[in-house]
TrEMBL record:
Keywords: Membrane, Transmembrane, Transmembrane helix. The keyword Metal-binding does not apply. The chain crosses the membrane at residues 103-126, 146-168, 180-201, 221-240, 261-284, 304-325, 346-367, 373-395, 407-425, 431-451. This is Purine-cytosine permease.
Length: 459
């Protein structure tokens, strides 16, 4: 058997994961800690500051939002994953047939590639520091130099190879690197506190105080913006059920609690540490000059970490980008593999990595990360609602699998109409998109039940 065949067969894309392949909590702890204490955290933390958050909004809002995310993983995603032990894509195929899943998987895979691309961008800002590379600005969209292109291509190739080796390799890479990344965030936060002259909790609180006006081109974030955005920052993974593909390897649903390592060691601590780094940078003459000109100072994470802890910061940002991009590209590869089931997982994952690398060339995905993360979760989460409602109301279990060669238009309507309506509402009324993610999710699930009620009566 070739290496490619072994890689494909060991991933169980179209069958339940056997008991012999189940993994304990340590595998997931390392993966989630590594994935969420990541390069993107170096961007998200500063972006909260550009939105003018207050101390209470940031510290308490993140506490609440990340708790809601952990509960979503534990009591929705992990429960359903352990019950069926199928990938998201194969489970969806049973509900709505292969043709509609193909459309969903294409959207899913492409969005994951864009997200992974933002992580390649983050790592590239660190690699570029020794080369005195011009860093992307908050408003940049296109590549700004040949050096940038070469660095992004090299990083993308390494990340793609690791992801293509399969879940075990992704998990091992996260376990190896996550302690180093967590240490880097802690050290960055402590150094920044020292540079800011913080000697007490009140000094720490006063860094953000009552908040400020948002930077040019940004909107003002309140407590609810922070809490709801942080809950749905990973909406595609938990309420969107993408992590069915990960937790199908879990021995018990309680493994879902390991996501707390990512949410609190990663998101909570790392976002605040990164925000502290940016608070230091904002006080610099360069940043103050930009603000006086009505411009938003750069949030490139490489220089921020380098200014705090030197070469250690560069290495930390590079590795942090890898550990987040690896599982994201792995998920994208599974999405594409379900479209082309006869193609090896290795090669479709390499294709996903290539798309992510191309996306990484364009800084806009990283510089507008708050907006992009909200949008991709908003698009993908409603399909997760259909899986949740189908599971708990036993729709497919009672009525049987949907014919593979047909299009389940009822699922298509339930997935597309609610988010489309709420997206238009957000666009025309200015309502923060993340505020509408839960209503769209719930309405998709309820609409699905309404549309299949006749099917349940005859089951």
């Amino acid at each position: 058997m070739s290496d490619n065949q072994e890689t494909t067969s060991s991933e169980f894309e179209r069958e339940p994961v056997p008991k012999s392949q189940l993994k304990g909590w340590k595998s997931f702890l390392g993966m989630y800690a590594g994935e969420h204490a990541a390069g993107t955290e170096f961007v998200i933390g500063p972006l909260f500051l550009t939105a003018g958050v207050s101390a209470f909004d940031l510290i308490v809002g993140l506490l609440v939002g990340n708790l809601l995310a952990v509960l979503s993983w534990r009591f929705l995603t992990a429960e359903i994953a352990v019950k069926h032990r199928l990938t998201l894509y194969y489970q969806l195929e049973k509900i709505c047939g292969r043709k509609l899943v193909t459309v969903y998987n294409l959207a899913n895979g492409v969005l994951f590639c864009f997200l992974a691309g933002s992580m390649v961008t983050v790592s590239a800002t660190a690699v570029g520091v020794p080369f005195d590379m011009e860093m992307p600005k908050l408003t940049d969209t296109m590549p700004n130099s040949v050096t940038w292109v070469v660095i992004v291509l090299a990083i993308g190739a390494v990340i793609s190879l690791i992801a293509a080796r399969g879940y075990s390799m992704v998990s091992k890479a996260a376990n190896w690197m996550s302690p180093f990344i967590v240490l880097a965030f802690v050290v960055c936060g402590l150094v920044a506190l020292n540079q800011l002259g913080v000697g007490s909790f009140s000094d720490f609180w006063n860094i953000w105080g009552e908040g400020s006006e948002p930077f040019p081109g940004q909107i003002k974030y309140t407590f609810w913006h922070v809490a709801i955005w942080s809950w749905f920052a990973n909406a595609a993974m938990h309420v969107g059920m993408s992590d069915l593909s990960v937790f199908r390897f879990a021995k018990t649903p309680s493994v879902g609690w390991t996501t707390a390592a990512g949410m609190y060691v990663g998101h909570y601590m790392a976002w605040i540490a990164a925000a502290l780094l940016y608070a230091v940078y904002i006080q610099s003459p360069e940043a103050q000059s930009m603000l006086e000109q009505g411009l938003a100072p750069s949030v490139a994470p490489g220089p921020l970490a380098y200014n705090a802890i030197g070469a250690f910061g560069i290495v930390a940002v590079v590795i942090a980008g890898w550990t987040t991009a690896n599982p994201t590209i792995y998920r994208a590869g599974l999405a594409f593999q379900s479209i082309l089931p006869k193609t090896s997982t290795f090669w479709v994952t390499m294709v996903a990595g290539g798309l992510a690398t191309i996306a990484g060339l364009f800084p806009a995905f990283a510089m507008k990360l708050l907006d992009f993360v909200a949008l991709y979760g908003f698009i993908l989460a409603p399909m997760g609602a259909i899986i949740v409602f189908d599971h708990y109301f036993k729709v497919t279990e009672r009525a049987g699998d949907f014919p593979a060669n047909q299009v389940n238009w009822k699922v298509f309507i339930a997935w597309s109409i609610p988010p489309l309506c709420f997206y238009l509402l957000s666009s025309f009324s200015g309502i923060f998109l993340s505020f509408l993610t839960l209503p769209a999710w719930l309405l998709s699930g309820v609409l699905y039940l309404i549309l299949v009620k006749d099917k349940l009566k005859t089951a």
